[in-house]
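QA checklist item 7 of 12: single-chain prediction sanity check.
[x] sequence parsed
[x] length recorded as 176
[x] structure emitted
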Amino acid sequence: MNVIDRRKQILGILERETEPVTASELAAQFHVSRQVIVQDIAVIRAQTPEIISTCRGYLMGQRDACAREIKVCHKENDMVRELKTIVDSGGRVKNVSIKHRVYGRITAPMDISSHKDIEEFVALLQDGTSTLLSNATAGYHYHLVEAANPKRLDAIEEKLGEAGLLAPFRAWEKKG
């Protein structure tokens, strides 16, 4: 197989997969070294900047992204784990919302799509006297999450569920 065909196939794999794909996995599949794959990805990314690199491998980021509201519940010390679960699965956290019995729906922008964004968010919280919005609702909150396709959003919800962070929507709640 020539290099152009291999790169086309790598791009196709990244477009189909909902989980990150490691350079080692691609290297084994194409019978080349991991370094060859890393170089291929660098060339592909020059023309397809939506490819993102996570600590768990490569995946296709948002192109014509779709979004879904996901309900979660956790203690404050699980916030980083929650955000990392979403971004490592190819999602972008657009906002956070709570439904407060007195104040109604309260929404705040987040725009978190990387570990660096998470670090900056945590630093902002630690630098002031503010707390998480979800503290007002015993940890229950919603995130509008963007991903490349509905299958990726399903995978994000599945990972959040496995991590014990996903909360079910109640009958009276409108799933967004």
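[x] summary fact logged: The mean pLDDT is 90.
[ ] second reviewer sign-off
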